[in-house]
Design brief:
By secondary structure, the protein is an alpha/beta fold. It has one domain: Uracil-DNA Glycosylase, subunit E (3-Layer(aba) Sandwich). The protein has ten helices and six strands, in the order αααββααβαβααββαα. Strands 1-3-2-4-6-5 form a six-stranded mixed sheet, with helices on both faces. A hairpin with a 4-residue loop joins strand 5 and strand 6. The chain is globular and about 40 Å long. The two termini are 26 Å apart. The site of uracil has 13 residues, from loops.
């Protein structure tokens, strides 16, 4: 049995054959405040470290008063792939890291199914603070927080962005089109002219496992951009 089999099974993709894209040469983690993140002062990392420190002090919206930790991002700041989710949940708020709860386990499996590990990608959210009770982000929260994501992207300069879920897709593409309308083609993230593929949020896939096949199609589309 291939070492990828358990991950593909968790993805519900037992019948898919794994073929690994070549990951780049990548390094260490970057998350939370710069110090906590262990971001090395080097190029994009140095500036992301500064940005992480700024975001750690952010009080632009009311979420700052209910957060335990700011969740800035994690992974390799110079990664070729950037995955963007919606907002931290309870576990992420507790640990100060994105996608460390159940949705995070599925994201790990999704990454593994295309031959990537968390260390080889960069992961961020639209909102850096947890909305109470995991409610949907308010428009004004997205508005206040989006400039941070835009700066993260400009500093990290990934080769592709995968927007997971409606909020990430709509915020990055500045549209109110539905996820169904946005899936299935390669968009352009206009600010940095980067290819962007829209897919389901892992939390949605946990609730609706039958959508995993479509999510696999999205990932293959993203892989085709990167091959
Ligand atoms: N859902 C998200 O959108 N982001 C996280 O970091 C965790 C769950």
């Amino acid at each position: 049995m291939s070492r990828h089999a358990p991950y593909l099974r968790e993805m519900g993709l037992v019948r898919w054959r794994y073929s690994a894209p070549a990951p780049g040469e990548h390094g260490s983690a970057a998350a939370g405040s710069a110090a906590a993140a262990g971001i090395q002062p080097q190029g994009a990392r140095k500036d992301l470290a500064r940005l992480a420190d700024e975001v750690a002090r952010c009080e632009r919206c009311d979420l700052h008063s209910v957060r335990r930790n700011v969740v800035f991002g994690a992974g390799d700041a110079r990664a070729r792939w950037l995955f963007v989710g919606e907002a931290p949940g309870a576990e992420e708020d507790k640990q100060g890291l994105p996608f460390v709860g159940r949705a995070g386990s599925l994201l790990n499996a999704i990454l593994f199914s295309i031959g990537l590990s968390r260390d080889e990608v960069y992961i961020a959210n639209v909102l850096k603070c947890r909305p109470p009770n995991n409610r949907d982000p308010f428009g004004r929260e997205v508005q206040e927080c989006s400039p941070y994501l835009q700066q993260q992207i400009s500093l990290a300069q990934p080769e592709i962005i995968v927007a997971m879920g409606r909020f990430a897709a709509q915020a990055l593409l500045e549209t109110d089109q539905s996820l169904a309308q946005l899936r299935g083609r390669v968009h352009q993230y206009k600010i940095d002219q980067l290819p962007l593929v829209v897919t389901y949020h892992p939390a949605y896939l946990l609730r609706s496992p039958s959508a995993k096949g479509k999510s696999w199609e999205d990932l293959r589309l993203a892989c085709s951009v990167m091959s």
